[in-house]
Amino acid sequence: MNQEPKKIERIFYTFQEAQEFLNISHDTIYKLMKQGLSSHKIGRKRVFLKEDLIQWIKEH
């Protein structure tokens, strides 16, 4: 009867998590943002949609 809890899929990545996901440096992610990599601000934090990061990988 004990079921394992369902894992919730991550939708947003923090700035640092996005860097790790894309395996790029701090400076590079800023350059990509200037070139159009989509990000969103929630409070004082900048986050990236996982979908946007995957799309960027596919395009580059």
UniProtKB/TrEMBL annotation:
Matching InterPro entries: DNA-bd_dom_put_sf, HTH_17, SinI_DNA-bd
Transmembrane segments: none
Single GO molecular function: DNA binding
Residue span, Helix-turn-helix domain: 12-59
Pfam family, one: HTH_17
Protein name: Helix-turn-helix domain-containing protein
Organism: marine sediment metagenome
